[in-house]
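Annotated sample (chain length 76).
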Amino acid sequence: MPQTISHQFVICIRNDDYPASLEKRKIYEVVPDPEAEKHSQIRVIDESGEDYLYPKDYFIPVMLPKETEEAVIQAA
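Output written by the structure step:
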């Protein structure tokens, strides 16, 4: 059976100090980073297309239906 890759997404609710890198109300894909989480940060793929660390409280987690998740991933 093929392994399913789970993706995590968040919605940006703040972009203080990062208006060029983050858009409020936009969905971002999370890159797992346990070390960042220890420091209340989250690693997301931002507007540059690269992954960077941001304050965790700038985002809220969101669960997307599988079909929507696949569409978001393909659109990236």
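Annotation: The chain has a mean pLDDT of 91.
Annotation: Residues 8-75 form a domain with the SH3 type barrels. fold (CATH 2.30.30).
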